[in-house]
Structures are given as structure tokens and as C-alpha cells.
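Problem 3 from the worked examples.
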Amino acid sequence: MKKMLFMGLALLLAALPALADNTITHGSDLFQTAGDGTTYAEVSVPAGYFCTGSSAYSGTITMGGVPVATSPANVLGNTDTIIERLSDTTFNASNVATVNAIVRVANFKSTSPITVTGCSGSSLWDVTSSAAPTQSSFAMTIYRSGSTATGGTFDSTVTINPRLTFTQQGTGGLTRTLDQSTITFSTSGASWTHQTGSGGLTYTSGSVQVDTDGNGVPDTNVPATSNFAAGWTNVPQSGCAATPCPVPVPHSTITARHQTKPPLPPCTTTQTTGLSAAKRHGKLATIARCYAISNTFTSGN
């Protein structure tokens, strides 16, 4: 009789719908910059900045995301931008939650070198961008449609102080660093869910050390991901077999757009020689699926 009662209770619990989390816990939000050419830096420096006798430089430098170095290594995949939500936040009776956040990583590199004349050595300089050591927090407002919803939208006004590093190509090339004025990006109606969908990247093994200054050496601990997956939606999307689906998270200013999407682990080539035909087919299928998902994340808008 007791066994039947326990079995009946288990079946009843299994039939209940999953409950939404009422509290969004402190954690890191991971992003990968879309390769659409809309992330760039407007730069203007006077003559003599790069070296004595160097020409002035003024122009738009198109940037692409560079995966952040981590310890343990490679655990954040192709992530190039990390925003940390600084505390837990609980939804109120209107299903709205607010929390402060801060940029920890914004790791980019110029898609092509700039040309600077007047210095000895190469006239080609590579440009990287990282988050300067001093950053300011900003507010995020998170919405859901009801107390049982497992996702919704969020708004924020992201502030970042970028640091540009110019490196002259060639052996013994010069290096110059420029801290830019604060840039403010507006995000409105971006999507979130409590969990990522198929192929999504999470890191739940405690804090991870990340490279914040772009030199390839991890230097700062950030918290693990939590029950807030930015850039995922429960609304079906073209090319996505089952929700949650990845969608863009645009960060806009008057003159620029920093388009991001949720990151994926890096796709790697797996050795298939010496395996049976069935195992080789399985591994090749896994690799093909990885690259197919990557294209969904990084192509288009």
C-alpha cells in the first residue's frame, strides 16, 4: 500500500509543470560578438603619438571578437564579452526585477591593421581593445510575463571604458595604449531564459579566472553562469529545432551597434582514423553538428 502511495505521489509530481525561478542569482553573462562588421572604434590621435615623427591618425577601426583566455583553459569557449550581475535579484509582484551589473571582459581585435607612417620599422599596426581597469556599474531591468514564465526580456544601459592597444608589426615593434572615453550602449527588449538551449555554453563549476586586459594571461575571477541565459528565447526561431533558441543581443549607440549572440564552445577537429565505421560516422556527425550550430550563432543578424 505504501509502495503504491509513493508511486502515485511520484507520478503526480512528475506531471506538474516546471516552476520558474523567482530569484535570478548572481552570475556571469557570456556573449560572442557577431561577425557583422558593426563593432568598431572611432580613433583620432595627433602626430607624434606613435613615435617621434609619426603621422596623425584618424579613422574607424572595425573590430572582431577574440575568445577570452581562461583558467581552467578554454572553459568559456568563444566568449569575448563577459558582464557580471553583481547580486541576486527577485521578481516583484509585477514580475520585474532589477540588478546592477558591470563589464568584466570586452576582448576585440582589428580585422585589419591600420597604417601609420613616420616610425622606423613596419607602418602596419594591429589594434586590440579590452575593458580598461576602471569600470562603472549599470542597471539591468529584467521582465517576465508571469510567475510561471521561464524567460522574458531585459533592458540595460551598458557603460564601458575601452582601452585600445596599438602594436607595431614586426620584431621589436612599438606598443602604445589609449584609454577612450566612456561609451554607453543601450539594450532594449533583449531575450533571456532560465536555461540555454541545445549547444549552449554554461560554466557552473564555481568561479573562473579570465583575462581582462587582453594580454592572454588570466588575471581576474568572475562568477559562474547562473539561471539567467541572455540571448536565448522560448519563441521558436527559423533554423532552431527546439526552444530555447539563440537570438541576437544588440547593444546600440547613436553611431554604432555592437551585435552579440550567446557563445558556443569552440568546434575542434577530432581524430577519426583507426575507429570503426560506426564510431567514425558518429564523430564526424558530431563535428558537422557543431559547425552547423556555430553558423546559426555567428552568421546574419
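Problem 4, a separate protein:
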Amino acid sequence: MLEGSGIPVEKRFVVNGQNFYYHNQQNPGTPIKDNVMVFYKFKNEENPDSNAHARRKCPRLSKDSKGNILFVGEDHIDHTPKDEALNIHIGNAFDVISERKQTDYKRVDTHLWEMEFEITLRNHKDSPITVEVNEPIGGDWEMLTSSYKYTKTAAWAAQFNVPVAANGTSLLKYRIRARW
């Protein structure tokens, strides 16, 4: 059980793409829904055990004279040295939606393809958020166009941080060229 108050906690919304999205032409029609995972990130200032339970005061109950606490999720964590960051996956967001579709796929040469994707992010929350979108592109790739700035987080992966307004929608569009 982790307890503490006054600990700076960052709430992260994360979408992880799948490798198979980049190895063939996806079926047209209904977009693929990806889970939007929710993480709490904070610095380990002590040495917690291997199970973490995350609780927060429920805004709807905060006016309750009993000071009720709402259980929001739990995760198993590895032993984490003091002063290192912890990321606790507390579950999937039900009010943030991610849908992806492949809008273009063409073979340029024997081992060279171009693909274009659109990822629609819908935020049904009353506050703006940022969604971290991780794309495991693979192969020898280059980004040809992108509606949001990306970071090459590994030889085979790109990451986008997409802001989504309160009760709003954002559209991430990008085109890659990949060699396998």
C-alpha cells in the first residue's frame, strides 16, 4: 500500500500501437479501437513493496464530512530504487477514446512501402489532456509527414504527444516510408 500526501503525481494517458499495423494492408471500414491506458507517474522517495494501490479523494465525495477515499486501481511494480520514477498502470480510460485507420498503403519497391495512418482521439473529460501515442513502426523507416511533432524513441518507434481539448477531438495524421 502506498500512502502519502503532497507527492507530485503526473497522470498520463497512453496509446500503444501494435506491430502488425505496419506489416500489411489493414482492412478498410470500421476503425481499430486502441485502449487508452492510464498511468500515475511519481518519484520514489522511499522503497515501496511490490504491490501498489492507488487511491485518490473523489471530487464528488470531497465535500463529504467523512472524507471518503475512492479506489482507482492497482498495479504490480518491480523493486524501484529510491529517487527513481514509478509508473503505475491503474487501468484504461473509459472517457478517452482512440480509433485508428490506415488511409493509404502502397508498395514502392520490393522491400519498400509507404503507409498513412489517422488516429482520432476523443476526450469526454471536462478538462484538456495530452495523449502519448507510441507507434512501433519497425524496419528502416522515415516520417514523411505528420500533423504533430514526433520523437524517435527507438530505432523502430515513434512517439507523439497529442493535446486534446476538454470535450474535444484531435486528429493525428502521419505518413511513413519503411523498408523491411
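Solution to problem 4. Confidence is low (pLDDT under 50) at residues 50-64. The chain is about 0% helix and 60% strand.
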